[in-house]
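Pasting as-is:
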Amino acid sequence: MAGKTAKQRLRSFAVAAALLCGSSLLGLALVEVGVRLFAPQPEIAEWFKADARYGFAMKPHARQAYRYLGHGFTMNVETNAQGFRDDEHDFAHPFAGRTVLLLGDSFVFGYGVNRPDRFDTYLRAGFAGKDPPVRVINTGVPGWGTAVEVRYALDHIKVYQPDVVLLLFCGNDPGNDRGRDLPALSDESSRLYYPKLLLRKHSHAYRLLLKQVALFRHRRALKSRRERSPEATLNVQSASVISDEDWQHSLSLIRDFHDKLLGARPNAALIVMATSPEDTAIHERLAGLSNGNSLFYLDLEPALAELSEEERRMPWDGHWSPAVHKIAGELLCDFIEEHHLLD
Protein backbone atom coordinates (compact mmCIF):
# COMPACT_ATOMS: atom_id res chain seq x y z
CA MET A 1 0.00 0.00 0.00
CA ALA A 2 1.42 3.30 -0.98
CA GLY A 3 2.17 5.83 1.76
CA LYS A 4 -0.07 8.77 2.42
CA THR A 5 0.28 11.76 0.18
CA ALA A 6 1.32 15.11 1.59
CA LYS A 7 -2.29 16.30 1.32
CA GLN A 8 -3.55 13.30 3.26
CA ARG A 9 -0.90 13.75 5.95
CA LEU A 10 -1.85 17.42 6.30
CA ARG A 11 -5.52 16.48 6.58
CA SER A 12 -4.73 13.85 9.23
CA PHE A 13 -2.67 16.37 11.19
CA ALA A 14 -5.47 18.95 11.00
CA VAL A 15 -8.01 16.40 12.25
CA ALA A 16 -5.73 15.37 15.13
CA ALA A 17 -5.06 19.01 16.04
CA ALA A 18 -8.77 19.79 15.93
CA LEU A 19 -9.56 16.80 18.15
CA LEU A 20 -6.83 17.82 20.59
CA CYS A 21 -8.04 21.44 20.71
CA GLY A 22 -11.65 20.34 21.04
CA SER A 23 -10.93 17.90 23.87
CA SER A 24 -8.77 20.51 25.63
CA LEU A 25 -11.48 23.15 25.37
CA LEU A 26 -14.06 20.64 26.59
CA GLY A 27 -11.84 19.75 29.53
CA LEU A 28 -11.34 23.42 30.43
CA ALA A 29 -15.07 24.04 30.11
CA LEU A 30 -15.81 21.13 32.45
CA VAL A 31 -13.27 22.46 34.96
CA GLU A 32 -14.84 25.91 34.77
CA VAL A 33 -18.32 24.50 35.31
CA GLY A 34 -17.08 22.40 38.23
CA VAL A 35 -15.42 25.37 39.95
CA ARG A 36 -18.52 27.54 39.44
CA LEU A 37 -20.74 24.82 40.95
CA PHE A 38 -18.61 23.65 43.86
CA ALA A 39 -16.04 26.39 44.57
CA PRO A 40 -17.28 29.72 43.15
CA GLN A 41 -14.61 32.39 43.42
CA PRO A 42 -15.01 36.01 44.59
CA GLU A 43 -15.27 38.66 41.92
CA ILE A 44 -12.29 40.91 41.27
CA ALA A 45 -12.22 44.39 42.79
CA GLU A 46 -12.25 46.84 39.90
CA TRP A 47 -11.84 50.06 41.88
CA PHE A 48 -8.05 50.07 42.26
CA LYS A 49 -5.47 52.00 40.25
CA ALA A 50 -1.70 52.41 40.31
CA ASP A 51 -0.36 55.51 42.05
CA ALA A 52 3.19 56.84 41.92
CA ARG A 53 3.04 58.36 45.42
CA TYR A 54 1.17 55.65 47.34
CA GLY A 55 1.82 52.54 45.24
CA PHE A 56 -1.87 52.10 44.56
CA ALA A 57 -5.07 53.96 45.35
CA MET A 58 -8.73 53.84 44.39
CA LYS A 59 -10.30 55.23 41.26
CA PRO A 60 -12.47 58.35 41.56
CA HIS A 61 -16.16 57.80 40.81
CA ALA A 62 -15.76 54.00 40.63
CA ARG A 63 -18.91 51.88 40.78
CA GLN A 64 -19.14 48.14 41.35
CA ALA A 65 -21.71 45.76 42.78
CA TYR A 66 -19.32 43.26 44.38
CA ARG A 67 -21.16 39.97 44.88
CA TYR A 68 -20.22 37.37 47.48
CA LEU A 69 -21.21 34.31 45.51
CA GLY A 70 -22.88 31.59 47.51
CA HIS A 71 -23.89 33.98 50.28
CA GLY A 72 -26.49 36.15 48.59
CA PHE A 73 -24.76 39.37 49.65
CA THR A 74 -23.64 42.26 47.47
CA MET A 75 -21.25 44.97 48.62
CA ASN A 76 -22.01 48.16 46.73
CA VAL A 77 -18.83 50.15 46.21
CA GLU A 78 -19.06 53.77 45.12
CA THR A 79 -16.12 56.14 45.40
CA ASN A 80 -16.18 59.93 45.50
CA ALA A 81 -14.12 62.50 43.59
CA GLN A 82 -11.10 61.78 45.81
CA GLY A 83 -11.36 58.04 45.20
CA PHE A 84 -12.72 57.06 48.62
CA ARG A 85 -15.83 55.16 49.63
CA ASP A 86 -17.21 58.26 51.29
CA ASP A 87 -19.48 61.27 50.86
CA GLU A 88 -18.50 64.07 48.55
CA HIS A 89 -16.83 66.88 50.50
CA ASP A 90 -16.42 70.52 49.58
CA PHE A 91 -12.73 71.26 50.04
CA ALA A 92 -12.82 74.44 47.96
CA HIS A 93 -14.27 76.42 50.88
CA PRO A 94 -13.35 76.49 54.60
CA PHE A 95 -15.45 74.23 56.80
CA ALA A 96 -17.06 76.06 59.72
CA GLY A 97 -16.94 73.14 62.10
CA ARG A 98 -14.84 70.24 63.37
CA THR A 99 -13.33 67.39 61.35
CA VAL A 100 -12.68 63.76 62.23
CA LEU A 101 -10.34 62.06 59.77
CA LEU A 102 -10.34 58.26 59.49
CA LEU A 103 -7.18 56.47 58.34
CA GLY A 104 -6.95 52.75 57.69
CA ASP A 105 -7.22 49.87 55.29
CA SER A 106 -10.06 47.50 54.39
CA PHE A 107 -11.68 47.81 57.82
CA VAL A 108 -12.12 51.57 57.41
CA PHE A 109 -13.16 50.99 53.80
CA GLY A 110 -15.77 48.61 55.15
CA TYR A 111 -14.98 45.40 53.30
CA GLY A 112 -17.91 42.99 53.44
CA VAL A 113 -20.51 45.53 54.55
CA ASN A 114 -22.42 48.36 52.96
CA ARG A 115 -22.05 51.95 54.08
CA PRO A 116 -25.18 52.07 56.30
CA ASP A 117 -23.55 49.35 58.46
CA ARG A 118 -20.06 50.87 58.55
CA PHE A 119 -18.72 52.36 61.78
CA ASP A 120 -18.35 55.91 60.47
CA THR A 121 -22.10 55.95 59.77
CA TYR A 122 -22.72 55.47 63.52
CA LEU A 123 -20.04 58.04 64.28
CA ARG A 124 -21.77 60.61 62.08
CA ALA A 125 -25.12 59.80 63.70
CA GLY A 126 -23.62 60.43 67.12
CA PHE A 127 -22.46 63.89 66.07
CA ALA A 128 -25.68 64.83 64.26
CA GLY A 129 -27.02 68.21 65.31
CA LYS A 130 -23.78 69.31 66.98
CA ASP A 131 -22.91 72.99 67.02
CA PRO A 132 -20.44 73.59 65.50
CA PRO A 133 -21.10 70.80 63.01
CA VAL A 134 -18.81 67.76 62.76
CA ARG A 135 -17.81 66.15 59.49
CA VAL A 136 -16.28 62.70 59.23
CA ILE A 137 -13.89 61.99 56.34
CA ASN A 138 -13.23 58.35 55.50
CA THR A 139 -9.98 57.67 53.61
CA GLY A 140 -9.81 53.89 54.04
CA VAL A 141 -8.05 51.99 51.23
CA PRO A 142 -7.82 48.18 51.31
CA GLY A 143 -4.20 47.10 51.41
CA TRP A 144 -2.72 50.34 52.71
CA GLY A 145 -0.48 50.11 55.77
CA THR A 146 0.40 52.68 58.41
CA ALA A 147 3.27 54.11 56.37
CA VAL A 148 1.07 54.95 53.38
CA GLU A 149 -1.87 56.07 55.51
CA VAL A 150 0.14 58.65 57.44
CA ARG A 151 1.91 59.77 54.28
CA TYR A 152 -1.45 60.46 52.68
CA ALA A 153 -2.71 62.26 55.79
CA LEU A 154 0.33 64.52 55.98
CA ASP A 155 0.09 65.27 52.25
CA HIS A 156 -3.50 66.45 52.75
CA ILE A 157 -3.45 67.88 56.26
CA LYS A 158 -3.93 71.45 55.02
CA VAL A 159 -6.90 70.34 52.94
CA TYR A 160 -8.66 68.29 55.61
CA GLN A 161 -7.57 70.31 58.69
CA PRO A 162 -8.45 67.47 61.08
CA ASP A 163 -9.22 68.06 64.74
CA VAL A 164 -9.26 64.34 65.53
CA VAL A 165 -7.53 61.60 63.54
CA LEU A 166 -8.43 57.96 64.01
CA LEU A 167 -5.77 55.47 62.89
CA LEU A 168 -7.26 51.98 62.68
CA PHE A 169 -4.30 49.62 62.96
CA CYS A 170 -4.38 46.21 61.27
CA GLY A 171 -2.20 43.28 62.27
CA ASN A 172 -0.45 43.15 58.90
CA ASP A 173 0.54 46.82 58.99
CA PRO A 174 4.09 46.18 60.30
CA GLY A 175 4.71 43.85 57.36
CA ASN A 176 3.21 46.30 54.87
CA ASP A 177 5.22 49.14 56.37
CA ARG A 178 8.40 47.23 55.54
CA GLY A 179 7.22 46.67 51.97
CA ARG A 180 5.94 43.12 52.41
CA ASP A 181 2.57 41.47 51.76
CA LEU A 182 1.44 44.35 49.56
CA PRO A 183 -1.14 43.75 46.82
CA ALA A 184 0.38 43.82 43.35
CA LEU A 185 -1.47 45.53 40.53
CA SER A 186 -1.20 44.11 37.03
CA ASP A 187 1.06 45.96 34.59
CA GLU A 188 -1.27 47.65 32.10
CA SER A 189 1.60 48.10 29.63
CA SER A 190 2.01 44.34 29.28
CA ARG A 191 0.67 42.68 26.13
CA LEU A 192 -0.92 40.03 28.34
CA TYR A 193 -2.74 42.55 30.55
CA TYR A 194 -6.08 42.53 28.73
CA PRO A 195 -6.20 38.75 28.07
CA LYS A 196 -5.45 38.17 31.76
CA LEU A 197 -8.02 40.78 32.78
CA LEU A 198 -10.61 38.99 30.64
CA LEU A 199 -9.80 35.70 32.36
CA ARG A 200 -9.85 37.26 35.83
CA LYS A 201 -13.23 38.85 35.22
CA HIS A 202 -14.97 35.86 33.66
CA SER A 203 -13.19 32.65 34.68
CA HIS A 204 -13.68 31.19 38.16
CA ALA A 205 -11.12 28.48 37.41
CA TYR A 206 -8.49 31.08 36.55
CA ARG A 207 -9.21 33.03 39.74
CA LEU A 208 -8.95 29.82 41.77
CA LEU A 209 -5.59 29.08 40.14
CA LEU A 210 -4.33 32.58 40.96
CA LYS A 211 -5.47 32.19 44.58
CA GLN A 212 -3.68 28.87 44.98
CA VAL A 213 -0.48 30.30 43.49
CA ALA A 214 -0.70 33.29 45.83
CA LEU A 215 -1.26 31.02 48.85
CA PHE A 216 1.73 28.88 47.88
CA ARG A 217 3.97 31.94 47.55
CA HIS A 218 2.66 33.35 50.82
CA ARG A 219 3.35 30.12 52.73
CA ARG A 220 6.84 29.90 51.25
CA ALA A 221 7.55 33.51 52.21
CA LEU A 222 6.23 32.92 55.75
CA LYS A 223 8.45 29.87 56.16
CA SER A 224 11.48 31.80 54.95
CA ARG A 225 10.79 34.72 57.32
CA ARG A 226 10.27 32.43 60.29
CA GLU A 227 13.55 30.68 59.55
CA ARG A 228 15.35 34.02 59.34
CA SER A 229 13.62 35.46 62.44
CA PRO A 230 12.63 32.59 64.77
CA GLU A 231 11.80 35.07 67.53
CA ALA A 232 9.20 36.82 65.39
CA THR A 233 5.49 36.35 66.09
CA LEU A 234 2.78 35.16 63.72
CA ASN A 235 -0.14 37.54 63.42
CA VAL A 236 -3.15 35.26 63.13
CA GLN A 237 -5.49 37.83 61.58
CA SER A 238 -3.20 38.54 58.64
CA ALA A 239 -1.17 35.30 58.66
CA SER A 240 2.03 37.33 58.53
CA VAL A 241 5.27 37.10 60.48
CA ILE A 242 5.98 40.25 62.47
CA SER A 243 9.42 40.81 64.01
CA ASP A 244 10.23 43.19 66.83
CA GLU A 245 12.08 45.35 64.30
CA ASP A 246 8.93 45.51 62.18
CA TRP A 247 6.92 46.58 65.20
CA GLN A 248 9.37 49.27 66.25
CA HIS A 249 9.33 50.68 62.73
CA SER A 250 5.53 50.93 62.66
CA LEU A 251 5.31 52.40 66.17
CA SER A 252 7.92 55.02 65.26
CA LEU A 253 5.83 55.93 62.21
CA ILE A 254 2.83 56.56 64.47
CA ARG A 255 4.83 58.64 66.95
CA ASP A 256 6.37 60.67 64.14
CA PHE A 257 2.95 61.23 62.58
CA HIS A 258 1.60 62.39 65.94
CA ASP A 259 4.42 64.92 66.26
CA LYS A 260 3.87 66.25 62.74
CA LEU A 261 0.10 66.36 63.26
CA LEU A 262 0.57 68.58 66.32
CA GLY A 263 3.07 70.70 64.42
CA ALA A 264 0.42 71.46 61.83
CA ARG A 265 -2.65 71.30 64.12
CA PRO A 266 -1.52 72.05 67.72
CA ASN A 267 -4.92 71.24 69.25
CA ALA A 268 -5.50 68.03 67.33
CA ALA A 269 -5.65 64.54 68.81
CA LEU A 270 -4.67 61.13 67.44
CA ILE A 271 -6.64 58.03 68.44
CA VAL A 272 -5.30 54.56 67.63
CA MET A 273 -7.57 51.49 67.56
CA ALA A 274 -6.82 47.88 66.59
CA THR A 275 -8.80 45.86 64.08
CA SER A 276 -8.09 42.76 66.21
CA PRO A 277 -8.30 44.12 69.78
CA GLU A 278 -8.46 40.57 71.16
CA ASP A 279 -4.80 40.13 70.17
CA THR A 280 -2.94 40.87 73.41
CA ALA A 281 0.40 41.43 71.66
CA ILE A 282 -1.12 44.16 69.48
CA HIS A 283 -2.99 45.60 72.44
CA GLU A 284 0.18 45.92 74.53
CA ARG A 285 2.19 47.50 71.72
CA LEU A 286 -0.43 50.09 70.84
CA ALA A 287 -1.40 50.86 74.43
CA GLY A 288 2.20 51.90 75.05
CA LEU A 289 1.79 54.78 72.60
CA SER A 290 -0.81 56.64 74.66
CA ASN A 291 0.15 59.84 76.47
CA GLY A 292 -3.38 60.47 77.78
CA ASN A 293 -3.43 63.95 76.27
CA SER A 294 -3.15 64.14 72.50
CA LEU A 295 -2.33 60.51 71.67
CA PHE A 296 -4.74 57.81 72.79
CA TYR A 297 -5.17 54.08 72.44
CA LEU A 298 -8.85 53.17 72.42
CA ASP A 299 -9.33 49.56 73.50
CA LEU A 300 -12.29 48.08 71.64
CA GLU A 301 -12.13 44.63 73.25
CA PRO A 302 -14.15 45.30 76.47
CA ALA A 303 -17.05 46.60 74.38
CA LEU A 304 -16.97 43.43 72.28
CA ALA A 305 -16.78 41.02 75.20
CA GLU A 306 -20.35 39.73 74.79
CA LEU A 307 -19.89 38.94 71.09
CA SER A 308 -18.75 35.47 70.11
CA GLU A 309 -16.05 35.00 67.49
CA GLU A 310 -18.72 34.08 64.95
CA GLU A 311 -20.64 37.27 65.73
CA ARG A 312 -17.54 39.42 65.20
CA ARG A 313 -16.92 38.27 61.63
CA MET A 314 -19.20 37.63 58.68
CA PRO A 315 -19.57 34.21 57.08
CA TRP A 316 -18.68 35.64 53.67
CA ASP A 317 -15.79 37.81 54.79
CA GLY A 318 -13.14 37.89 57.54
CA HIS A 319 -13.65 41.57 58.32
CA TRP A 320 -15.82 43.16 61.00
CA SER A 321 -19.48 42.27 61.15
CA PRO A 322 -22.13 45.03 61.23
CA ALA A 323 -22.42 44.42 65.00
CA VAL A 324 -18.74 45.26 65.53
CA HIS A 325 -18.97 48.30 63.25
CA LYS A 326 -21.90 49.61 65.31
CA ILE A 327 -20.09 49.11 68.62
CA ALA A 328 -16.87 50.68 67.28
CA GLY A 329 -18.65 53.75 65.91
CA GLU A 330 -20.62 54.40 69.07
CA LEU A 331 -17.60 53.76 71.31
CA LEU A 332 -15.46 56.16 69.28
CA CYS A 333 -18.14 58.86 69.42
CA ASP A 334 -18.48 58.49 73.20
CA PHE A 335 -14.70 58.58 73.66
CA ILE A 336 -14.33 61.78 71.65
CA GLU A 337 -17.18 63.40 73.59
CA GLU A 338 -15.93 62.29 77.01
CA HIS A 339 -12.44 63.63 76.35
CA HIS A 340 -13.77 66.88 74.81
CA LEU A 341 -11.55 66.38 71.78
CA LEU A 342 -13.76 68.52 69.54
CA ASP A 343 -14.41 71.34 72.02
